[in-house]
């Protein structure tokens, strides 16, 4: 089944250290709990070690205390195949994260395209690549012009589909994520069900859905037959769903408790290719 989906085997990952100023990262106004910097860095260290344990060559970019969100490399860069698209995050302060990522991707030998429009917005947290096609959130953080640039960049190889993301969710990956080739994890809530209907309506392929009982519990990372997902301590009901429905995969529970305080999760913290 995985061969049918033509999903890539990842060999490299790019991550960035936790900013000294992570507590000023962009977040929903209702999220007021402080990130414990020491615990956040400990969780990040376990996360990076898990990537290395899976055989990935991990490039670590130093943190920048002037860029509170710099740890969340998924948003300012989208990598598919041998091409990196340097995006234009919607929040002005985050646009400073793109320079070092552009340099890093060029140094790693990828083809690089940069969003140069000053009106387009596009963030990687809105983009799901299934191996066959690309879904992109039409959200408060990624607009139609950003989607057009995504399609110009990757559309010759993969169909691109726009999926409406209803506020207060910021990104498509807030309630949809690729759990494994052909399997999409969706939050079983008032936003997840319409998004799943949209995915089914526009997709060129048929996916299996795995309904997740907790908000943001869907956010997981598939890497070469392994799945990094939430811990039992953080989301026990979601943990049980993964243990039951994805038992054929190598399952790696990983906490994102601290970054969740600034509305981030597992996929936010790495780029894979």
From TrEMBL:
GO annotation, biological process: arginine metabolic process; citrulline metabolic process; positive regulation of nitric oxide biosynthetic process
Keywords: Hydrolase
Any Pfam family: DDAH_eukar
GO molecular function list: amino acid binding; dimethylargininase activity
Stored InterPro entries: DDAH-like (IPR033199)
Signal peptide positions on this chain: none
Family: Belongs to the DDAH family.
Protein name: N(G),N(G)-dimethylarginine dimethylaminohydrolase 1-like
Organism in which the protein naturally occurs: Branchiostoma belcheri (Amphioxus)
Gene that this sequence comes from: LOC109478983
């Amino acid at each position: 089944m995985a061969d049918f989906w033509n999903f890539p085997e990842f060999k490299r990952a790019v991550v960035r250290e936790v900013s000294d100023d992570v507590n000023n990262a962009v977040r929903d106004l209702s999220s007021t709990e402080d990130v414990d910097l020491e615990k956040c860095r400990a969780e990040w260290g376990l996360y990076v070690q898990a990537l290395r344990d899976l055989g990935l060559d991990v490039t670590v970019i130093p943190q920048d205390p002037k860029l509170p969100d710099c740890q969340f490399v998924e948003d300012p860069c989208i990598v598919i195949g041998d091409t990196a698209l340097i995006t234009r995050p919607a929040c002005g302060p985050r646009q400073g994260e793109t320079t070092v990522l552009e340099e890093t991707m060029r140094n790693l030998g990828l083809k690089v395209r940069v969003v140069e429009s000053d009106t387009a917005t596009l963030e990687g947290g809105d983009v799901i690549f299934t191996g066959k096609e690309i879904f992109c959130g039409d959200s408060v953080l990624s607009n139609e012009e950003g989607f057009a640039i995504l399609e110009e960049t990757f559309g010759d190889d993969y169909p691109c589909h726009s999926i409406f993301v209803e506020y207060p969710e910021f990104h498509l990956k807030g309630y949809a994520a690729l759990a494994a080739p052909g399997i999409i994890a969706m939050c079983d809530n008032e936003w997840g069900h319409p998004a799943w209907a949209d995915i089914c309506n526009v997709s060129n392929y048929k996916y299996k859905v795995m309904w997740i009982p907790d908000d943001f519990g869907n956010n997981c990372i598939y890497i070469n037959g392994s799945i990094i997902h939430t811990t039992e301590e953080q989301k026990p009901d979601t943990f049980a769903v993964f243990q039951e429905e994805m038992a054929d995969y190598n399952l790696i529970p990983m906490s994102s408790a601290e970054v969740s305080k600034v509305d981030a999760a597992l996929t936010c913290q790495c780029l894979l290719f």
